[in-house]
């Protein structure tokens, strides 16, 4: 009985991990779209603000690229069965 409960909990935890991966993919995708919109709006304004924002976005995109690399390694594994696309 105890073993079956542990197996059930492990399956639940795997499902939560799949959901988290899906949410992270979606968040990175949405953030990238938001960054593009912000930069396009700032391009016609103050260049100092644009430059600082561009620097910040570049650093954030490097972090996101690193996360995407790790997610790709996870989702490419043979045992991964979750959804690795963007969206709700």
Give structural notes.
It is a single chain. With 88 residues, this protein is an all-alpha fold. The chain is built from two helices and no strands. The two termini are 36 Å apart.
Q: Short summary of the structure?
A:
The protein is an all-alpha fold and 88 residues long.
User: Which structural class fits the helix and strand makeup?
Assistant: mainly alpha
Instruction: Write down the domain tally.
Output: 1
Compute the CA-based radius of gyration.
19 Å
Strand tally: 0
Total helices: the number is 2
Give the terminus-to-terminus CA distance: 36 Å
**Strand fraction:** under 5%
**Shape, per Cα inertia axes:** elongated
Helix-strand sequence:
HH
State the share of residues found in helices, binned by percent: over 70%
Pick out the low-confidence regions.
none
Instruction: Look at the structure and give the mean pLDDT.
Output: 88
Characterize the biggest β-sheet.
Answer: none
């Amino acid at each position: 009985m105890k073993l079956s409960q542990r197996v059930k909990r492990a399956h639940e935890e795997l499902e939560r991990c799949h959901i988290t991966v899906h949410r992270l993919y979606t968040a990175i995708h949405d953030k990238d779209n938001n960054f593009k919109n912000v930069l396009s709006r700032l391009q016609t304004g103050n260049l100092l603000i644009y430059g600082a924002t561009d620097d910040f976005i570049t650093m954030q995109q490097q972090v996101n690229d690193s996360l995407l690399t790790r997610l790709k390694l996870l989702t490419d594994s043979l045992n991964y069965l979750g959804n690795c696309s963007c969206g709700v």
